[in-house]
Write a structure and sequence with these properties.
The structure holds 2 protein chains of 2 kinds. Chain A has 15 helices and 4 strands. Chain A is α/β, with parallel strands linked by helices. Chain A has a 4-stranded mixed beta sheet with strand order 2-1-3-4, with helices on both faces. Chain B starts with 7 loop residues before the first strand and ends in a 6-residue tail after the last helix. The model of chain B has no long low-confidence stretch (mean pLDDT about 90). At the A-B interface, helix 1 and helix 9 of A face helix 2 of B. Bound molecules: adenosine-5'-triphosphate and magnesium ion.
């Protein structure tokens, strides 16, 4: 036990005194979050800007609930200057302008952005229908339409990116940490020196596991801390902390990937190359950087084979989608399965010594 | 220890790297409490022999027994009883000297206080807060030795412990090693310094090309060599011609700095030199282990 504690502390000190490692493990992923979090701050929940010329009873008399719903998709600015409003639409500054002349609701839209104008037309049409139904005395219409955008498009970018980039950061940190410790400790003869001491192998591996989990914890704290800043505006679900078990399982899985990379390489350069080769494409193909919903089906199927996909989707589920811990159980099981298999491979490839 | 079996028993040890037979049939015993030295030129197979004894390398054939047990594969019963300083020092990255030795000590259940004491023993207390990357080569070497000794092992393996040390540090280390030996611990060391072996070791083995050429107490080896005494004076004090005429059967050589006369009967040569008042820069050297080494390996030793 003392040997586990002293090795963990030796490893942790070594890590926290290594500026390069600190940068690439903590700061670098955080920069991604800050960069993309800032760039896509308004994306995802992007509202369509329209102008309302004068009074439009259909909109003005919406019940409070419906008005709030409308507010989520349309940003309505009221104006009385008809000419200026139409000019704004013509220039493409606003997606559309609406006005109501008696019983007629007119939508002036620009053809510049077909998607946006279609959105506006669709929404306005449904408003008109609702108003007609109400006028006909149907207060509880037989069929109602509720606009529910596809989830990942409704998740604000920061909501999607925080768990995604965090999952990627944890994966990279655990993989590189384990791979580089193994290789440099072998290359610098520390492993050989440890072999001569009565330290159990379990203590050496246990120390690496403890340090990796601690680093992952630090990454989570930094990421969530930054994303929660009002500027980025992350909103966590009630049970967001339920991501911790899947985070630990993910750390273990990537730590074992790192151990395999480290056991298979002779130099830190080779180990880094292997680790990069594994984690980088996986990040793109696992939905860590951007959603896979639009990706071809074969890719979505393929992603199931990547531990990162399981880590990221489970973290998204509990951190921002409000799912419960139980939802992450299958992913935890899969990640631990990865861990077992890869740890066995690493143990098979393990060498104390270069010679 | 009342049993009579030796602490170390090495029998017909062999290890080849490809075609190269690095260790080629080495056998010896080391008794409990003995100070045993392995000498030999670069590439003689000293480190390879030591590593097989420590359990770091698997012998191709032959056997090693420490305290009656085999060190290969990794033998947890033996590990707490042995202390090893490797030829290439191994340290945790970016730890200070103090953190370094405390970490190693704790692997053996040794307290931090005891570890700090060892830092003082090798004269590194002023360097305690320095990272190992910032220590000089000799300081790293001393730290590595302290790390090997801190847990009070019964058997100590030291691979060229004094290489890279300044003369002062080297003498200090000799004192430390004599102390350890005086406590009844068994020490095996390799060295290129023949004076070191002569001064520390109860017994030495001289190796070359993976074989032991000769072994025994240094004094016995020197006596058995029956080598001539060397008398040197400053070049120019006497001509080589004249020196040869001082007595019969003298071997005279002059390297431009000093003129050396080799003889088995030094007394008459010395008085003849004195008569001629040709004693400037005089030094008289009896046969040493170096002569034995030279005689056996046919090479100058390289420190
Ligand atoms: N890992 C290795 N692979 C291949 N050859 C090796 C290896 N280690 C040592 N050798 C060779 O084995 C021979 C013996 O090496 P060893 O290190 O035992 O010599 P040594 O007596 O300790 O030399 P030195 O005084 O330089 O430390 C050398 O010729 C060396 O080149
Ligand atoms: Mg050597």
């Amino acid at each position: 036990m003392t040997s586990f504690v002293s090795l963990s502390s030796a490893m942790a000190r070594g890590f926290f005194r290594d500026r390069t490692a600190l940068f690439f493990t903590i700061l670098f992923p955080l920069m991604f979050l800050v960069l993309f979090g800032g760039l896509f701050k308004d994306a995802g929940a992007s509202k369509t800007d329209i102008l309302q010329i004068g009074a439009v009873p259909v909109v003005d008399q919406l019940p409070a609930e419906a008005a709030a719903g409308l507010d989520q998709v349309l940003a309505v600015t009221r104006t009385s200057d008809r000419a200026a409003a139409l000019e704004e639409v013509r220039k493409g500054d606003k997606a559309a302008a609406i006005e109501q002349v008696g019983g007629e609701l007119i939508v002036h839209y620009s053809a510049a952005d077909a998607v946006k104008s279609a959105t506006v037309r669709g929404i306005v049409e449904s408003l008109v229908q609702q108003a007609n139904l109400a006028a006909a005395g149907v207060t509880t219409p037989a069929v109602t339409m509720r606009t529910q955008p596809v989830e990942d498009q409704s998740l604000k970018a920061i909501q999607y990116m925080t768990p995604g980039l965090l999952g990627w950061a944890i994966a990279t940190g655990a993989t590189f940490g384990a791979a580089l410790t193994l290789v440099t400790w072998r290359q610098k003869k520390i492993l050989r020196r440890l072999r001569l001491s009565p330290v159990p192998i379990a203590s050496i591996i246990g120390a690496r596991v403890a340090v990796s989990i601690a680093i992952a914890g630090a990454q989570c704290a930094m990421f969530i801390g930054v994303a929660l800043l009002p500027y980025f505006g992350l909103q966590l679900s009630d049970q967001w902390w339920a991501f911790i078990p899947v985070m630990i399982a993910g750390t273990l899985a990537f730590l074992s990937i790192g151990l395999v990379a480290g056991a298979a390489s002779k130099t830190p350069e080779a180990a880094s190359a292997i680790a990069n080769l594994i984690t980088l494409p996986m990040a793109f193909l696992s939905g860590a950087f951007f959603p896979l919903d639009g990706a071809p089906e074969w890719l979505q199927n393929l992603s199931e084979f990547f531990p990162l996909k399981h880590l990221v989707s489970s973290m998204q589920d509990v951190m921002v989608r409000g799912e419960s811990f139980a939802v992450t159980l299958p992913d935890i099981g899969i990640l631990l399965g990865f861990t077992l298999v890869l740890a066995a491979v690493a143990a098979f490839l393990f060498r104390w010594d270069d010679a | 220890m009342h049993d009579m079996s030796p602490t170390i028993k090495v029998e017909e040890l062999r290890k080849a790297y490809g075609e190269l037979r690095a260790v080629d049939g080495v056998s010896f015993d080391v008794q409990t409490g003995e100070f045993f030295g392995i000498l030999g030129p670069n590439g003689a197979g000293k480190t390879t022999t030591l590593e097989m004894m420590e359990g770091l390398r698997k012998p191709d054939s032959g056997s090693v027994t420490l305290f009656g047990e085999s060190p290969w594969p990794r033998n947890p019963r033996l590990l707490p009883r042995i202390g090893v300083q490797l030829q290439a020092s191994a340290f945790f990255e970016r730890l200070t000297a103090r953190e370094q030795i405390r970490t190693f000590a704790s692997l053996y259940g040794v307290s931090a206080r005891k570890a700090d004491e060892w830092l003082a023993v090798v004269g590194l207390e002023d360097m305690a807060g320095k990272r190992n990357e910032d220590l000089s080569g000799g300081q790293q070497q001393r730290l590595s030795i302290a790390c090997a000794l801190a847990h009070g092992p019964d058997l100590v393996f030291l691979d060229e412990p004094t290489s890279g040390l300044d003369p002062q540090a080297r003498r200090n280390l000799w004192d430390v090693l004599r102390d350890i030996s005086a406590q009844g611990r068994t020490v095996v060391l390799t060295t290129h310094y023949l004076d070191e072996a002569e001064s520390l070791c109860d017994r030495v083995a001289i190796m070359d090309h993976g074989r032991i050429l000769e072994s025994g107490p240094p004094a016995t080896l020197v006596r058995d060599l029956d080598a001539p005494t060397r008398i040197s004076v400053e070049t120019g004090t006497i001509t080589a011609e004249a020196a040869r005429g001082l007595a019969d059967g003298l071997e005279v050589s002059d390297d431009g700095v000093s003129l050396t006369i080799a003889t088995r009967t030094p007394a008459p040569v010395l008085s003849a030199l004195a008569e001629r008042d040709a004693l400037r820069g005089l030094s008289v050297r009896g046969a040493t282990l170096e002569d034995v080494f030279l005689h056996l390996t046919g090479r100058e030793y390289r420190a």
